[in-house]
Design brief:
Layout lengths: L1 H15 L2 H25 L4 H20 L17 H4 L8
GO cellular component, one term: plasma membrane
Keywords: Cell membrane, Membrane, Transmembrane, Transmembrane helix
Subcellular location: Cell membrane
Length: 96
C-alpha cells in the first residue's frame, strides 16, 4: 500500500508540478488498496494475512514495474527544511 502510494505521489508531483496534488494522490492510492484489503477481509471473509501478503506483493511488483522508467528522475518540488524550536536543539535530530 505504501509503495503504490509513494509511486502515485511521485508521479503526480512529477506530472503536475504540485506537492499538494502529489500528497493527495498518494493518500488516495494507499486508501484504495486499503479499501480493497478491507473488502477482501470483511465482505469476502478471506484471511487477513493471506490477502495482506498478496496485496503487499502486488504493490511491490506493480510499483517496481511502473516506476522503472522513473529511476533517476529528480523530483520537481520538494518540501523545504524547517526548524522546530525544541527538536532542532537536540544534537542527533537537528534540522528537519
Amino acid at each position: 500500500m505504501m509503495l503504490i502510494g509513494a509511486l502515485g505521489g511521485f508521479m503526480a508531483n512529477l506530472y503536475t508540478n504540485n506537492l499538494v496534488i502529489g500528497v493527495l494522490v498518494a493518500i488516495i492510492a494507499g486508501g484504495m488498496l486499503s479499501l480493497i484489503h478491507a473488502f477482501l477481509c470483511i465482505t469476502l471473509r478471506s484471511n487477513q494475512v493471506v490477502s495482506g501478503l498478496a496485496i503487499t506483493l502486488m504493490g511491490a511488483g506493480l510499483s517496481s514495474f511502473l516506476g522503472k522508467s522513473l529511476v533517476g528522475v529528480p523530483a520537481p518540488n520538494c518540501f523545504r527544511a524547517f526548524k522546530i524550536p525544541f527538536l532542532s536543539s537536540i544534537p542527533f535530530i537537528g534540522r528537519i
